């Protein structure tokens, strides 16, 4: 296997990834999460059988060279993997609570990466158990078959996935309402009420001022220090 062949495989894989994204965006983005994840896992298991055909040399029996079959296998596998991965990304983004999107999304991606590492460890253990090495491939077909069947195991947890479509809102309305209120204060659409204490020689004179955009201007005839204490958010605007 030369470097040119490896380069062709990577190039075809990149094209397959792009085709997967285009296909998802144009035809599959409106389906519900459960259907997408269900058929994504099934297609992933079925496309894995192409590796089994390559290992058992079934492709040569039908007249397809190893070079061509390996390139086709890579392109199809990467495209199906992208179709399987896109709904997961959309689901993770919709489960992020307002205000901590970056932290929560990083947590979900960390869990995903831990799963990928564990799959690599279990795969290495399976290869060691069946005595598959760089020079011994007698039981490689069994490893590929076990891998393809194990891809169907996550379907047992499919009931935990929301049954809604990918365009719906998954977070509770209370969380979204709180986020809108916070954004309104940040944007200056709400007003802030301050208690103003003017200190002079005779004592403190309390007064209440209504301010807009978190700005207040107090004129004190007595003179002295002015302390601004935020009390609450109000919906009144300055006339």
TrEMBL record:
<dbReference type="GO" id="GO:0016020">
    <property type="term" value="C:membrane"/>
</dbReference>
<feature type="transmembrane region" description="Helical">
    <location>
        <begin position="67"/>
        <end position="92"/>
    </location>
</feature>
<dbReference type="InterPro" id="IPR039309">
    <property type="entry name" value="BT1"/>
</dbReference>
<keyword id="KW-0813">Transport</keyword>
<keyword id="KW-0812">Transmembrane</keyword>
<dbReference type="InterPro" id="IPR036259">
    <property type="entry name" value="MFS_trans_sf"/>
</dbReference>
<protein>
    <recommendedName>
        <fullName>Folate-biopterin transporter 2</fullName>
    </recommendedName>
</protein>
<dbReference type="Pfam" id="PF03092">
    <property type="entry name" value="BT1"/>
</dbReference>
<keyword id="KW-1133">Transmembrane helix</keyword>
<feature type="transmembrane region" description="Helical">
    <location>
        <begin position="104"/>
        <end position="128"/>
    </location>
</feature>
<feature type="transmembrane region" description="Helical">
    <location>
        <begin position="36"/>
        <end position="55"/>
    </location>
</feature>
<comment type="similarity">
    <text>Belongs to the major facilitator superfamily. Folate-biopterin transporter (TC 2.A.71) family.</text>
</comment>
<keyword id="KW-0472">Membrane</keyword>
<feature type="transmembrane region" description="Helical">
    <location>
        <begin position="6"/>
        <end position="24"/>
    </location>
</feature>
């Amino acid at each position: 296997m030369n470097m040119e062949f490896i380069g062709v495989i990577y190039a075809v894989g990149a094209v397959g990834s792009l085709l997967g994204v285009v296909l998802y965006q144009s035809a599959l983005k409106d389906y519900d999460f459960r259907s997408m994840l269900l058929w994504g896992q099934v297609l992933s298991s079925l496309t894995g059988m192409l590796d089994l055909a390559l290992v058992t040399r079934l492709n040569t029996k039908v007249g397809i060279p190893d070079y061509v079959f390996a390139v086709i296998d890579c392109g199809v596998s990467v495209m199906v993997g992208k179709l399987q991965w896109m709904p997961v990304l959309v689901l993770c983004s919709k489960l992020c609570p307002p205000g901590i999107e970056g932290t929560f999304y990083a947590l979900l991606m960390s869990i995903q990466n831990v799963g990928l590492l564990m799959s690599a460890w279990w795969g290495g253990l399976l290869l060691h158990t069946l005595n598959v090495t760089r020079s011994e491939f007698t039981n490689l077909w069994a490893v590929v078959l076990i891998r393809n069947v194990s891809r169907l195991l996550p379907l047992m947890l499919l009931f935990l996935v929301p049954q809604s479509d990918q365009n719906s809102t998954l977070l509770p309305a209370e969380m979204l309402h709180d986020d809108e209120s916070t954004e309104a204060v940040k944007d200056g659409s709400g007003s802030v009420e301050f208690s103003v204490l003017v200190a002079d020689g005779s004592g403190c004179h309390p007064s209440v001022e209504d301010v807009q955009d978190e700005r207040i201007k107090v004129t004190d005839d007595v003179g002295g220090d002015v302390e601004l204490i935020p009390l609450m958010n109000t919906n009144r605007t300055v006339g």
